[in-house]
Amino acid sequence: MKKLMIAAALPLVLGGAALAQAPARTVWDGVFTAEQATQGKAVFDSKCAICHGTELNGAEMAPALSGGAFIVNWSGSPVAELATRIRTTMPANDPDSMSRQDVALTIAYILSFNQFPAGATPLPADDAALSQIAIVADKPAK
Ligand code: HEC
Questions:
Q1: pLDDT band at 5 (very low <50, low <70, confident <90, very high)
Q2: What is the pTM of this model?
Q3: 29 vs 120: CA distance, rounded Å
Q4: DSSP tag of 140
Q5: Using one digit for the tens of pLDDT, what is the confidence trace for 77-130?
């Protein structure tokens, strides 16, 4: 029993260690491709827009996924956190239904919509890689 609990706790400890390190990149570094953003728009329009709006401006209960408040709210968090939030709670009427790949595409679209630059490297789908990319509201000085 004790052994089992340790085994169960280990991924949490490792996950925490990965997050404790400063992420290597930020959303200003071109962390998704333009193609992903285009594909993500299709996913967003079919699964998210009904509540969050085609302009990502929110409606009724659903908050905006664009603009200052949204980005400031997530600023300082790794993209992995946003991915987990979406994957486990969204679409609100059918949570846990999306593949990691579709979540990554959707995030590429949301980042693109919020004026973060596309780049040459695709946004990864796995949490370990996503935990190395930080959401940062203001462009870091080089
Ligand atoms: C049925 C309506 C509905 C659908 C469809 C839906 N959402 Fe949501 N979403 C909500 C509501 C309501 C909230 C706020 C309450 C909550 O967090 O559950 C929310 C919250 C969020 C948040 C947190 C925003 C913040 O600033 O903290 C994100 C991110 C999000 N949704 C992304 C998505 C994505 C991506 C999709 C499509 C895959 C999606 N949602 C589909 C209703 C919806």
A1: low
A2: 0.87
A3: 10
A4: P
A5: 999 999 999 999 999 999 999 999 999 999 999 999 999 999 999 999 999 999
pLDDT digits (tens, 9 = 90+) for 51-72: 999 999 999 899 999 998 999 9
Nearest CA to ligand 1 atom 12: 62
Main-chain dihedrals φ then ψ at residue 129, nearest 5 degrees: -70, -40
Percent of the chain having pLDDT more than 70?
Answer: 84
Beta-carbon contacts of residue 101 (< 8 Å; ≥ 6 apart):
125
Substitution site in 46, 51, 82, 98 for ligand 1 pocket (most atoms within 8 Å of beta carbon): 51
How far is Cα 2 from Cα 20, in angstroms, rounded to an integer?
A: 27
Cβ–ligand 1 distance for 49 under 6 Å, the answer no
Q: Are 27 and 134 in contact (CB under 8 A)?
A: yes
Which pLDDT value is given to residue 25? Answer: 95
Domains (range + CATH), the chain: 23-134 (1.10.760.10)
Site of tokens 């890689």? 129
Strand partners, 59: 62
Distance CA 1, CA 20 (A): 29
